[in-house]
Each structure stands twice: as structure tokens, then as C-alpha cells.
Amino acid sequence: MSFAGAIFDVDGVLVESPHERAWIETFNQLFDTEWQDIRQQAGYHPSRFTHEVYLEHVSGKPRLAGAESALVHLGVPDAAQRVHRYAELKQHRIIALIEQGEFEGFDDALRFILAVRDMGIRVAAASSSKNAGLFLKQIRLDTFAAAQGKRYDFVSEGMSLLDLFDADVSGRDFAQGKPHPEIFETAARELGCSPEGCLVVEDAMSGIEAAKAGKMTALGIARHDDADRLDDAGADLVVTSLDDVSLEALRAGRLERGA
Ligand SMILES: [Mg+2]
Fold this sequence. Notes:
This protein is α/β, with parallel strands linked by helices. It contains 13 helices and eight strands. The protein has two domains: 160 residues, 3-Layer(aba) Sandwich (Rossmann fold), CATH 3.40.50; 81 residues, DNA polymerase, domain 1 (Orthogonal Bundle). A six-stranded parallel β-sheet has the order 5-4-1-6-7-8, with helices on both faces. It has a two-stranded antiparallel sheet with strand order 2-3. The longest helix is centred in the middle third of the chain and has 21 residues. It starts with a strand and ends in an 8-residue tail after the last helix. The protein binds magnesium ion.
């Protein structure tokens, strides 16, 4: 049996989103404005919110949980009262960054999704984030394919990555988020595919777990030196670049690493 559908997470799989930058810039902005009076008490310095702080305390967490964790760790007084304002401004900041095009699509992911679609496999987007569409509509597939020296009869002039999807369930309010399989089950249904005929591409443990709970094949993309964690979560294959997936095997319905 070959794959009938492929379901893609967005953040970390298709695009590198500017979450870290938005969290850090908003933190510094608040201390320059509304929180100026607590600068001393908080021991504030613009260099304190580092990449390591982001990875350890914010990354992968829901918005409010990440905001509170960062504020507590950085010693901000009355963190619980300030968390909503911080999260709200961070959301404004990230939307502004996305609208300014301050993010990157992953070339390997674009090559992969075009090849998959070219095999006749139907494709869906399934991000938990309500921002996903903002990214997807800014990535141009016609210019990307041309730059790669590729021609596809399904890529038309001005086509965006958002236009490529046969189904998009991103940002919907499901009763339970990943690792519950509901988001992927809904995507499979909207593609008109059985779960067993679907491949899910994910960069997070919760997403791999959701795919397996939904009886789907799970492909883990480890972009942060975290292949072991995706393996432990039950991925059928983990790669560090989607270029490493064998397209020949995929066409035959098998998920394998290429030569
Ligand atoms: Mg992700």
C-alpha cells in the first residue's frame, strides 16, 4: 500500500518561526516602558534573557506557561500578575515579525513537500498554532521551484505554500491538543484518507505521539540535535534533513532513509 496523504506540522517542520526573538524583544521592550519602575528590583539587564533561557524555560510550552516560566526564572517581581501582559505583547510582536517576513521556510521541507505532492499524495497542514496560515501564505512555491530548477504542473504563478494544501486544520480549537490524535485524525478525514494511509511529519515529541496514537506513520525531523527524543516518542523514522528520506521508497509506500 502506498501513502495516500501526508500531514505536516508547520513550526519547526516547514518554517523557522521567530518565537525566540519575539519573546526576548518583548521582554526588553517592557522594561524600557511599562516595567521601568521595577528594573532595579528585578535586576534587569538586556543580556539576561539568553538563547539558553529560551530553550530551557519557554520553547515548546503553551504561550502563558512559557511567559510565566521565563518571568519567574528571570526574577521578575509579581510574575503571575505580569504574565498576561507579557504574553499578549509577545503575540503582537510575533504577528508583526511574520507580517514583515522575518522568518525562513526550510528548503529541505519545501523540496520534500513538492516531491510528495508530485507523487499524487494529498497534503494537509496541521499546526496547533493560529499563526500558521500567516507563514504559509508568504512562502512562494513558484519562485522556489524555479530557483531549484524544477517544474511541476501543479505549481502555478504566484502560488503560495498555503495554496498547495488540500486540507488545512491549523489553529482550530480541538477538545484536546497534541499528543491527542484528534488534529491529525481530522486532517486525514478532510483529505479523504484512512489514518493507516497517512504519513505525519513532525518536529515535536507530542506530535509524534499524536501520530502514533492515531495509527499513522510518523516521520520525525530533528532540527535541534534531538533525534533521540523523537525516537523515544515512537517515530518510525527520524532524519535531520527531509532530503534524507528516500523518495523512491516513499513512492512504493515505505518510509526509509535514502542512500
Ligand atoms: Mg512543530
